[in-house]
Amino acid sequence: MEEPEHAQADGGAANGYAVAFAPVAEIESGRIFAYEALLRTREGAAVEARIAGMDAPSLGALYARFRLAAVRSAASLGFVKSGARLIIDLPVALLADPFEELRPLIDAAHGCGIVPRRLVMRVKAPEQYAPFKLADLLDAHAKHGCATLYGPLHGRDDEFQRLTRLPPDFVEIDPGETQGIASSWARRIQVENLSRRITGASHGARLIASGVSADADAAKLRGYGFRYISGDVVGAPELGALPASRLAVSKDDAPSAGSATA
User: Which of 17, 60, 193, 245 has the smallest number of CB atoms closer than 10 Å to its CB?
Assistant: First the structure.
């Protein structure tokens, strides 16, 4: 794994990979809330096609290296003093013992001066995992002191079942659910209902609107239960840098709560 600043190899199985960081901002202030660590090629491209044929042990080892590289890279780029959180993807299917397999990450974070509460572990498609496996994972997160993020979610019934029984700290909403909110009353009503249902089912999890690309949509999302936002309106992922937020904030654009039909 190549850490962006130092470009040091981290073993043969991980050569050719690097860590990029994508900014997540507070929707009201525009300030950086978190950086999401992304596994990328050294050129910054997505890796899905490259890793598609890897067996589970190799993939698990790659993601373990990625987690360590994410923490160390972020620390080398000034993350410790940023006050932000660090979101790291956690492929649940590859973890046999979540508590023990997360220990190296927690130790690395401590070694870099990052307290565990600033780590947010992303769980994609939580509805695909047996409740006991998800419960073990959330228990491991709680014991280590880090937070849990589910997403991106779409608002399906099976997702709500997991939210109710095993609520996370954060929920990220799929971009397809919020796209076009600025130009559609029907979409605004849908988004408002979805955010209320998710907040209620998850016992108050904080919501992230992900992949937002239009400034008009970002402005309309204010006031509909979303605390945070990511996507092109905030900034693109970068190798070797913690990107600044470019989210434009205008109080005149912010709707009051409950104004989805306005």
Answer: 193
